[in-house]
Design brief:
This protein has 312 residues and is an alpha/beta fold. Helices cover 39% and strands 20% of the residues. The protein has 10 helices and 12 strands. Strands 2-1-3-4-5-11 form a 6-stranded parallel sheet, with helices on both faces. Strands 7-6-8-9-10-12 form a 6-stranded mixed sheet, with helices on both faces. Helix 1 packs across helix 9, helix 2 packs parallel to helix 3 and helix 4 packs parallel to helix 5. The chain is elongated. Bound molecules: beta-D-galactofuranose. Beta-D-galactofuranose (GZL) binds next to helix 1 and strand 9. Beta-D-galactofuranose binds next to helix 1 and strand 9.
Amino acid sequence: LTACGGGDDSGDGGGDGLVVGFAQVGAESAWRTANSASVQSAAEADERIAELKFVDAQQDQEKQIEAVRNFITQQVDVIVLAPVVETGWTDVLQEAADAGIPVVLADRGIEAADEDLYVTRLGSDFTEEGRKAGTWAAETFAADTDGTRILELQGTTGSAPANDRKAGFFEVLDAEGLDYEIVDSQSGNFTAEEGKAVMETFITTHGLEGVDLLYAHNDEMGLGAIQAIEEAGFTPGTDIQIIIVDGSKAGFQAGVDGKLNYIVECNPVFGEQLMDVVVQVADGETVEKFTPVEEGAFDATQFEAELPNRQF
Ligand code: GZL
């Protein structure tokens, strides 16, 4: 994004607004591209922001670290980071701290050991998203007397949403006393292509007979899995029930088509809220360590009514 207020390149916005560096995860999903669009349009429209330096790190942590180092060299006013994974940030975030540049996490989080190296995180409570999925599954399969057999497509290995969506889901299944078996659980890296490939492997290895539920950590992997299920001659949403997380238009359309059964919303449209947080941090205001974005969950009775409201 080029400077909209003619901000100089000294990194301090020349007094006519903030220069912000944003190291984004990548462009792996509809959620991600909607999140990038929301942040970029909010920065563009906000006269308090002179320039947003945007980097798409293609889901590569080294590229994200390089982007943060460049923001430090350019002496931006605030660094925004959506960390692709939870670990490996200590050194570069310490460098930002040493340079006196505050860091705001957008979307994903990092390990607790590094909590002092960023000011605040604006994003989802991924554990709560997992709990919502688990609550629906425990209710849906409560009467399943021969044990509920579950396949899981995990998000990017080591990422906060993958770790926490898994933890929240099984925390509830265990708390509700559901009798279940994890038939298999692998990462599809939040992409449709990898989600489909892993589902094909699940089908080849285990077959689908008697598998009750697929829990996919995002829409893309769930939609890729649906293709694999159909290509194997099974009916998604009926032969195997499916939960997805995000709530994209494509995900809701698949729900309307009866191909999946529960959608846990993860809200990417928080650009304006993020700009407010960035300005507060730049002004040295005290902010909460975590600000959760608002989001819900939807079952088959709600898909049709909700589809027109979906923004990505
Ligand atoms: C969650 C976000 C995840 C989405 C995926 O906040 O980090 O990354 O659920 C995206 O679609 O790839």
